[in-house]
Specification:
Mean pLDDT: 83
Radius of gyration: 55 Å
Structural class: mainly alpha
Strand content: under 5%
GO cellular component, one term: MICOS complex
InterPro entries: MIC19/MIC25 (IPR007964), MICOS_subunit_Mic19 (IPR052632)
Largest sheet: 2 strands, antiparallel
Order of helices and strands: EEHH
Low-confidence stretches: 43-51
Helix content: over 70%
Protein name: MIC19 protein
Main location: mitochondrion
Membrane topology: Lipid-anchor
Length: about 170
């Protein structure tokens, strides 16, 4: 992660304004380039004649900046991996929760269906019982009406007979 020596060779050169030009394909972010352009903590740029010391210092700074950039990228990659794992766990948890909810709902639906069937059977049974009672009471009513008619007939006959007797007696 930047702590060990890199086997990659970076070749660079300073132009007349002491700007750095990367010769081999190393990409540097704008922030790295800006930091490299800042004057060194030793109190400003050295004159052009001290190029070897300046080159060593620049090489060191580039190596440090590259190490920092790699560490930052590695850290971001690790964060993305952790976030991916977290999202995957969350997705699995959501799926499990959803599956349990679906199973509970199915069980509740099945229970409601069975309850409805039970209630339908009870209603049918009550209807059959009511029909039996209805038939029984209609039969009883018919018997009572028949008896009442017979009683009325007998009573009417007895009344007529008694009326005839009274009328024959007092004539």
């Amino acid at each position: 992660m930047g702590g060990g020596g890199s086997t990659r060779r970076v070749t660079f050169e300073a132009d007349e304004n002491e700007n750095i030009t990367v010769v081999k394909g190393v990409r540097l972010s704008d922030s790295v380039i800006d930091r490299m352009k800042e004057p060194s903590p030793s109190g400003g740029r050295q004159p052009r004649g001290a190029g070897a010391v300046n080159d060593e210092e620049l090489k060191k700074r580039i190596a440090e900046e590259l190490a920092l950039e790699r560490a930052r990228r590695d850290s971001e990659a690790q964060k993305r991996r952790l976030l991916g794992k977290l999202l995957e766990r969350e997705r699995i948890s959501s799926n499990e929760h959803l599956t349990r909810a679906i199973l509970r709902e199915r069980a509740a639906t099945e229970e409601e269906r069975q309850k409805a069937q039970r209630l339908a059977r009870q209603v049918e049974e009550k209807e059959r019982e009511l029909k039996k009672h209805d038939a029984y009471y209609k039969e009883q009513l018919a018997r009572l009406e028949e008896r009442s008619a017979q009683f009325y007939k007998v009573t009417t006959e007895q009344y007529q007979k008694a009326a005839d007797e009274v009328s024959a007696r007092f004539k």
